[in-house]
């Protein structure tokens, strides 16, 4: 049984949430970072006020933790150490960038958030979704996204894209295919748990179509707030 609930407060550690918090998730090879940057840049050019950020990282200390997590030389990193580092980076990012923007009425679009840890460390690393959720529950204090755009792609297609399109692979990119298959399965479990929060976009399509579909979804969410 997953311990997460859909309940979340508009108050987080003294901050008042006054804008939408939207995350973009997807397995490696989904084009998530490129799509996020392209879509948000287009919306900003159209006059939308928003803050694009990323995880792990997004702020000074969080980026330092990111460099440790993704360093391809850190192959001996324990799975639970990895999960704790992600949660630590997330907490710092939340306090430094996400919550201040939301409190000031600026919508935040984050390339990854807590769902990534549940899929990658909870299922991919076989720690379990509930233990990883408990670590992150302490870190985020109930601050869940209002909506999550999920770029849906199977592990095999995603891995082919990584191998073809990236000159340098980070520590997670270099994992075996079985790891990425578990990550994909983990996301499917999370999607079923939060059907009202997740909006799927078919990431197997060409990049231009994925960008356009994501743009339509994100613009609609911003216009409806």
Automatic annotation (TrEMBL):
Catalysed reactions, as listed in the record: dTMP + ATP = dTDP + ADP
UniProt KW keywords: ATP-binding, Kinase, Nucleotide biosynthesis, Nucleotide-binding, Transferase
Entry GO CC: cytosol
PROSITE patterns associated with the record: THYMIDYLATE_KINASE
Pfam families the UniProt entry points to: Thymidylate_kin (PF02223)
Positions that bind ATP: 26-33
EC code: 2.7.4.9
Stated role: Phosphorylation of dTMP to form dTDP in both de novo and salvage pathways of dTTP synthesis.
Protein's name according to its UniProt entry: Thymidylate kinase
Species per Swiss-Prot/TrEMBL record: Bulleidia extructa W1219
Lineage: Bacteria, Bacillati, Bacillota, Erysipelotrichia, Erysipelotrichales
């Amino acid at each position: 049984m997953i311990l997460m609930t859909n309940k979340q407060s508009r108050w987080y550690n003294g901050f008042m949430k006054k804008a939408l918090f939207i995350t973009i998730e997807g397995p490696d090879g989904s084009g998530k970072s490129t799509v996020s940057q392209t879509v948000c840049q287009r919306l900003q050019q159209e006059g939308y006020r928003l803050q694009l950020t990323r995880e792990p990282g997004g702020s000074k200390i969080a980026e330092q933790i990111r460099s440790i997590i993704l360093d391809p030389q850190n192959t001996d990193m324990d799975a639970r150490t990895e999960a704790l580092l992600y949660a630590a980076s997330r907490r710092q990012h939340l306090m430094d960038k996400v919550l201040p923007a939301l409190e000031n009425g600026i919508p935040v679009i984050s390339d990854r958030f807590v769902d990534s840890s549940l899929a990658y460390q909870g299922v991919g690393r076989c720690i379990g979704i509930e233990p990883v959720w408990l670590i992150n529950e302490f870190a985020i204090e109930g601050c869940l996204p209002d909506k999550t755009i999920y770029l849906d792609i199977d592990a095999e297609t995603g891995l082919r894209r990584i191998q073809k399109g990236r000159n340098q692979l980070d520590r997670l990119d270099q994992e075996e295919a079985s790891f990425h298959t578990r990550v994909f399965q983990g996301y499917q479990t999370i999607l079923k748990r939060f059907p009202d929060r997740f909006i799927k976009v078919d990431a197997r399509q060409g990049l231009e179509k994925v960008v356009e579909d994501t743009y339509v979804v994100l613009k609609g969410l911003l216009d409806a707030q």
